[in-house]
């Protein structure tokens, strides 16, 4: 009996690992952007966040604008 690749694939569709919804995404947005601008590994600190941004244009846009906002607010020394 041979394995059906399509069947295996369909079982793999969907988020692997922690699922981040829009609400959780908004909760973590500040922290994620701060880490990102600080040069920290934001993807490791907020697992699943980047994956959500990739699949959610609304949050992606929100992330972009917050990053621009916070980035502009950073004190220049
Ligand atoms: Zn979202």
Bound molecules: zinc ion
Provide a count of the helices.
Answer: 5
Order of helices and strands: HHHHH
Poorly predicted ranges (pLDDT <50, ≥5 residues)?
Answer: none
- Count the beta strands: 0
Task: Give an overview of the whole structure.
This protein is mostly helical. It has helices at residues 5-12, 22-37, 42-45, 49-55, 57-73. α2 (22-37) packs parallel to α5 (57-73) and α4 (49-55) packs across α5. It starts with a helix and ends with a helix. Zinc ion (ZN) binds at residues 22, 25, 52, 56, 58-59.
Question: How is the topology of this model organized?
Answer:
Elements: H1 5-12, H2 22-37, H3 42-45, H4 49-55, H5 57-73
Helix pairs in contact: 2-5, 4-5
The chain binds zinc ion.
Q: What is this structure, in a nutshell?
A:
The chain is an all-alpha fold and 77 residues long. It has five helices and no strands.
